[in-house]
Write a structure and sequence with these properties.
single chain, mainly alpha, 0% strand, globular
């Protein structure tokens, strides 16, 4: 249960990461530029930790031989997932953009555990885990879906175009679950979650940098260094590095399914509190008793799946 509590705490970082990265994007412009800045912060923080702890940064030949080549590029998959998520809100509306990836990530995480994909520990899908998952789905419905049913959800896409983006939303959730398993596999092969996280972020950052240099947008990075903007817009990169490190460290202990679900509970709980208090520029919204019940059901679902 200790590792589940740590995972819940990791989930608290996700709304902070989202708020900071949204503010950063508003400053520098294109999403890929703000992602480059955020990933650069993550990479520099991880390099500093590695140097201070005396952890090797580059993988050895033995590590390269023992690890699937694609696992070193899992950071790029994260970039693709982020890019899809950014466009989903515009194409299918806020509600679908949140719910479809959440549910597909939940289902795919359980499948990864059940079949041991990405070298993860096999955790069979039994009745208890199914009940726990249903509790989580009901909880998400109470926390996210019901409060938004009365509001208009704008969607620019219609017909087959909307179906296309809905399928991409499903893919986004599956990719998120796959990233969780892949980071854990990489950390297991390397033998050190800090080193695995550092290499993955470094590769993704370099590819993003080359892309921005190629299209001439790298000059926009300078806007992020202005003193006219709040300091907290930099914490997105630090949160991202911490979450990925937690991913690599915790998944071998709790499994992909529990990690994804506990992370989701922590994320929604702090998101509600941030909206209630108006922290980091979030629009103020009242927390209803229905949402509180939803969070409690989600916690119960995570506990059932973990037991």
């Amino acid at each position: 249960m200790f590792f589940v509590i740590i995972t819940l705490a990791m989930g608290l970082l996700m709304p902070l990461q989202t708020a900071a990265n949204s503010r950063l994007r508003g400053v520098v412009g294109p999403a890929y530029v703000s992602t480059l800045v955020s990933f650069s912060v993550s990479t520099l923080a991880l390099l500093l930790v590695s140097l201070l702890a005396g952890i090797p940064i580059l993988p050895t030949n033995q590590m390269l031989a023992a690890t699937p080549w694609w696992s070193w590029f899992v950071g790029l998959v994260a970039v693709v997932t982020i890019t899809i998520a950014i466009h989903l809100f515009k194409e299918i509306g806020q509600l679908q953009a949140m719910i479809i990836p959440m549910f597909s990530q939940l289902i795919f995480s359980l499948l990864i555990d059940n079949y041991g994909w990405f070298g993860s520990r096999v955790i069979p899908l039994n009745g208890q885990r199914i009940i726990g998952s249903l509790l989580l789905i009901v909880g998400v419905t109470l926390v996210v879906v019901l409060p938004r049913l009365g509001t208009r959800q704008q969607s620019a896409s219609k017909g087959s175009r909307q179906v296309f983006w809905q399928l991409l939303a499903v893919l986004s959730g599956c990719l998120s679950a796959s990233i969780t398993g892949a980071y854990a596999q990489l950390a297991g092969a390397v033998g050190n979650p800090v080193q695995a996280t550092t290499v993955a972020f470094f590769v993704a950052t370099m590819v993003l940098l080359l892309f921005c240099i190629g299209n001439g947008s790298v000059r926009l990075v300078g806007k992020a260094f202005s003193r006219d903007y709040p300091w907290w817009m930099w914490i997105g990169g630090l949160c991202g590095a911490t979450i990925v490190f937690g991913n690599a460290w915790l998944v071998p202990h709790v499994g992909v399914g529990v990690f994804a679900m506990a992370l989701l509970v922590g994320q929604l709980a702090l998101s509600m509190l941030m909206e209630h208090r108006g922290w980091l520029g979030a629009p103020r919204k009242h927390i209803s008793w229905v949402q509180i019940v939803g969070i409690l059901l989600m916690l119960g679902g995570v506990a059932l799946i973990r037991l």
